[in-house]
TrEMBL record:
InterPro entries with a match to the protein in the record: HATPase_C_sf, HATPase_dom, His_kinase_dom, HisK_dim/P_dom, HisK_dim/P_sf, Sensor_HK_Regulatory, Sig_transdc_His_kin-like_C
Reaction equations catalysed: ATP + protein L-histidine = ADP + protein N-phospho-L-histidine
Localization: Cell membrane
EC code: 2.7.13.3
Protein name as it appears in the record: histidine kinase
Keyword Cell membrane among UniProt keywords: no
GO MF annotation list: phosphorelay sensor kinase activity
First-listed, main subcellular location of the protein, grouped into a coarse class: membrane
Keywords annotated in UniProt: Coiled coil, Kinase, Phosphoprotein, Transferase, Two-component regulatory system
Classification via SMART domains: HATPase_c, HisKA
Keyword Transferase: yes
Superkingdom classification of source: Bacteria
Species of provenance: Micromonospora acroterricola
Length: 453
């Protein structure tokens, strides 16, 4: 008999006649049961043995059969059956007549053991089966030796019982599969209905979205047209108003000129009132013109490297005269050196002058301070005051055109300075933000890139 050198087989037997096929099947099932294979695996390896035995009996007239238990490379034990043909196999290899045989076992191959060609098959032993120690294997051999092979009729009876049980299991699985198929079909119908419903709702939503976008596009076009019309109106009105206002100022200056006829005290007071009102009106006209230019995009920055020190010095000199309240101090700090950034000097001066002027108007006591600092690649310019402060909900509203903060501290103005300042700062590539609390003053922060927009 073939086998590993020095290792006794659990059982060995001969295959010579048809009846031996039934005996091999029975004994194979018994060996599988003894070593601990589960019931279904016992039937599988027994069926594979009978099929291979039938092929070898027909092809070469028989084989010698031996059963072993081996330790595999996967760390698990395997029940191995070797069938050594009594004559050379055609082509030196065995190919099962039924392709299903190889699916009944873990391995099925043709090997050469000690110069003898062997058809070898194996099945893994469950991990919870008793460990096949040499003592245990000896017990297996003794137990198998005490049992006698049954007759072919008995084996056929057992095989038929197994077949009937398998058929019953197949019928049960078929019935379960039919139930599952019906449930799946019902689920599919529900999913399809839901899909159709969702598709209809999605299409309806898409139609609504398309209509909404069309309406938004129309509204946007109307808003753009309205904005352009407003800008043209402001520009035209401002130009039309500037000439008569300038004429009024000129006439008022002539009336008070020393070369003109002298005026009474009341006449001089009224002329001064006319000149003051005309100057305020001219300031409003200029603000309207600046805002119209900013909104229409007609302002083109004159980019240059600007030193903040002379800019701050000019602001310090020109605005000192506006700090007429004795309890308010204007402080313009010297910026740290080097204080150069790429911007438009005129536009930047307008923005800072506007912010300082606002602070001086609304601050009754304390100070209005301008300072600058460098932070990474940006210049941070802040104008802070000790005025009444602004409610948080009004922080964005004060950047709306013609809006002024209500209250007892309200002073004259157009409400156009801050909207214009923010537009100019944006044009210069920066931001203008407000930090303020009631009773704690206000801080306007201009952030500009060092290298320009």
């Amino acid at each position: 008999m073939t086998g590993e050198p020095g290792v006794l087989p659990l059982l060995q037997m001969a295959l010579r006649i048809e009846q031996d096929i039934f005996v091999i099947r029975q004994r194979g099932r018994e060996v599988a049961s003894v070593v601990g294979l589960e019931h279904q695996d016992q039937i599988r390896i027994a069926t594979a043995l009978s099929e291979v035995a039938r092929d070898l009996l027909r092809m070469v007239g028989g084989a010698d059969v031996a059963f072993h238990v081996d330790a595999g490379a996967d760390g698990r034990f395997h029940l191995r059956a070797d069938l050594a043909p009594v004559a050379p196999l055609p082509g030196g290899r065995y190919e099962p007549q039924s392709g299903a045989v190889s699916r009944l076992v873990d391995t099925l191959s043709t090997s050469t053991v000690e110069g003898v060609t062997v058809v070898r098959m194996s099945r893994r032993v469950p991990a919870n089966a008793p460990t096949p120690t040499p003592e245990r294997l000896a017990e297996f051999r003794t137990e198998l030796g005490r049992t006698a092979p049954a007759s072919a009729l008995d084996e056929l009876t057992v095989q038929n019982g197994q077949l009937i049980a398998a058929l019953d299991e197949v019928r049960s699985q078929r019935d379960e599969l039919a139930v599952l198929n019906e449930e799946l079909a019902e689920t599919n119908r529900g999913v399809l209905a839901l899909y159709n419903q969702l598709t209809e709702e999605l299409e309806e939503t898409n139609r609504g979205v398309v209509a909404l976008y069309a309406e938004l596009d129309e509204k946007s076009a109307q808003l753009r047209a309205a904005s352009e019309s407003k800008s043209r109106f402001l520009a035209n009105v401002s130009h039309e108003l500037r000439a008569p206002v300038t004429a009024i100022i000129g006439l008022g200056r002539l009336l008070t000129d020393s070369a003109s006829d002298p005026l009474t005290a009341e006449q001089a007071r009224q002329v001064d009132l006319i000149r003051s009102s005309a100057a305020d009106l001219l300031g409003l006209v200029n603000d309207l013109l600046d805002l119209a230019k900013a909104e229409s995009g007609r302002i083109e920055p004159d980019w240059a490297d600007v030193d903040l020190r002379p800019v701050f010095g000019q602001l310090r000199g020109t605005l000192r005269a506006l700090a007429t309240r004795p309890d308010v101090e204007l402080v313009v700090e010297e910026p740290p050196t080097p204080a150069v950034l790429r911007t438009d000097e005129v536009l930047l001066g307008q923005v800072l002058r506007n912010l300082l002027h606002n602070g001086l108007k609304f601050t009754e006591r304390g100070e209005v301070r301008l300072r600058a600092r460098r932070h990474d690649d940006r210049w941070i310019l802040t104008v802070s005051d000790t005025g009444p402060g602004i409610e948080p909900e009004l922080h964005e509203r004060i950047f709306e055109e013609f809006y002024q903060v209500p209250g007892a501290t309200r002073v004259g103005g157009t409400g156009l300075g801050l909207p214009y300042a923010r537009r100019v700062v944006t044009l210069l590539g920066g931001t203008l933000e407000l930090t303020s609390e009631p009773g704690r003053g206000s801080t306007f922060t201009v952030s500009l890139p060092v290298g320009g927009a």
